[in-house]
C-alpha cells in the first residue's frame, strides 16, 4: 500500500538547488542587471520603514546632543560668572591698593615734610565720642614712639601722641577739647593759641584782643613754641572773626586743614633737635619779655 503523501526530495538536494539558483540569479544580475527594477521597487518600499525604524535613534541622539550642549553651556556660564566675580574682587582690591598707594605718595611727597625723621603709621581704631577725639595707631614703643610726639599727614598737623604701648599708641587729635597748639598767622606772624572744642568743623583761638590783626582766610601754622610741634606745619585757616568793641576778646574760629573724618595713614615726626632748641629758646625769650613788661 502506497502512502498518501509521498516523500519529497531530500533536504540536501533542496539546499543544493537553492544554492545553484541563488548563484545563477546573482550571476545574471551582475552581468545583465536583471533585477534592477525589482531592487528599486524593494528599496522604495523598505526606505520608509527603515526611516521610521531609525527615527527614535535619531531623535534620541539629537536630544542627547542638545542636553550635552546645554550642560556644557551651563558649566561654561557658571565658570565665567565665577571668573567675573573673581576679577571684580581683584579690581576692587586693585583700586583700593591704588588709592592707598596714591595717599602714601601724597603723604611722603608733601612739600612741607622736611628733613625730620619720620615714619608712616596706619590708624587702627577711632574714638570720637562727644568729649574725646583720639585715634589708635599701629606703631609703639618698639618703633621708637614717645609721648608728646607730633603726628601729621599730607595736609598738616593731626595731633600728638599721649599714650604709648609696645606695639600701638594713642593720638590726641587737634580738635579734642583737651588739645591746644601754639600757632602763628603766616600773614603777619602774630602768635596765638588755638584750642580744640570737640568739633571737627573748627578750632578756636583763645584770648585774642579785638584789636588784633587777624582776618578771615589767614592761614595758621605751628609756631614751634612749647617744644612739641615743629615750626611751620599748616594747622587751620581762619573762617570766622567776630569783633565787638563791647567785648575784650574777639571770637575767632578756624577750619582745620586736616579732614579728621578721613584719617587713614599718618606720619610720626621726630623733630630736629636744633630747631626744637631754638623753639625752646624763643619761648623763654618771649616769657622773659612779658615778665619785664609786667614789671
TrEMBL record:
Instruction: Report the protein name in the record.
Output: Cell shape-determining protein MreC
- Does the record's keyword annotation contain Protein biosynthesis? no
Output the lineage of the source organism: Bacteria, Pseudomonadati, Pseudomonadota, Gammaproteobacteria, Vibrionales
Q: What does this protein do?
A: Involved in formation and maintenance of cell shape.
Give any Gene Ontology cellular component: plasma membrane
Q: Does the keyword Cell inner membrane apply?
A: no
Q: Which residues form the Rod shape-determining protein MreC beta-barrel core domain?
A: 123-270
InterPro entries referenced in this protein's UniProt entry, alphabetically: Cell/Rod_1 (IPR042177), Cell/Rod_MreC_2 (IPR042175), MreC (IPR007221), MreC_beta-barrel_core (IPR055342)
